[in-house]
Specification:
The protein has five helices and six strands; from the N terminus they run βαβαβαβββαα. The chain is α/β, with parallel strands linked by helices and 200 residues long. It has a six-stranded mixed sheet with strand order 2-1-3-4-5-6. Strand 1, helix 1 and strand 2 form a beta-alpha-beta unit. Helix 1 packs across helix 5. The longest helix has 17 residues. The relative contact order is 0.17.
Length: 200
């Protein structure tokens, strides 16, 4: 069985991608980056989600000699010109401080009325092969930002994004419901046929 490495040390992301690729009919051994402790953390120096995803996938493929998949994602707010965008995870200054990021964004939008609170989650998923072959696909989940957080599921900005056509926030959806419509789910489902084409 061919091995595919996912550029994350997050076990939940590995499980999520494994389910998506299996549902797409791919039988691959999928492992997270924690299986290769020698791999350095990649600095996300790109200016787009696609560039950052490719940086991570390329580093893994080059370091291990195996095909690698990576993603980069974030929240893009219409009235902020697409920000926080690639800075979503460190919007408040410290990387991964979900609560601080959420609080800062809500404060910045405090005087914005509901009809102008459009936003979307974006995700770029990249596949890099050791021979230099690379592919990137993207997914998007559009919605509206709530004035206050709701729900205890998910992470990041999930408690304030209410997807179009939904009455609940992403944090109020079950994991299966969220995966079915999420930006990450869309991107990885679009990547599955590419993986099949290039890896067999």
């Amino acid at each position: 069985m061919k091995r595919l490495i996912l550029a994350t040390r997050n076990a939940n992301k590995v499980t999520e991608l494994r389910a998506i690729l299996t549902a797409a009919g791919l039988s691959l051994e999928l492992v997270g980056a924690d299986a290769y402790p020698e791999i350095p953390d990649v600095k996300e120096t790109g200016v787009t989600f696609a560039e950052n995803a490719l940086l991570k996938a390329r580093t893994l493929a080059d370091t291990t000699g195996l095909p690698a998949v990576a993603d980069d994602s974030g929240l893009c707010v219409d009235v902020l010109g697409g920000a926080p965008g690639i800075f979503s995870a460190r919007w408040a200054g410290r990387h991964g401080d979900d609560r601080a990021n959420l609080d800062l964004l809500l404060a910045q939008l405090s005087d914005i009325s509901d009809e102008h609170r459009g936003a979307y989650f974006a995700c770029a998923a990249a596949l890099a092969l050791p021979d230099g072959t690379e592919r990137v696909v993207e997914g998007r989940l559009t919605g509206t930002l709530r004035q206050t957080p709701a729900g205890s599921g998910g992470f990041g900005y999930d408690p304030i994004l209410q997807p179009d056509g939904e009455t609940r926030t992403c944090a109020e959806l079950t994991a299966d419901e969220k995966n079915a419509i999420s930006h990450r789910g869309q991107a990885f489902r679009a990547l599955a046929p590419v993986v099949r084409e290039l890896l067999g």
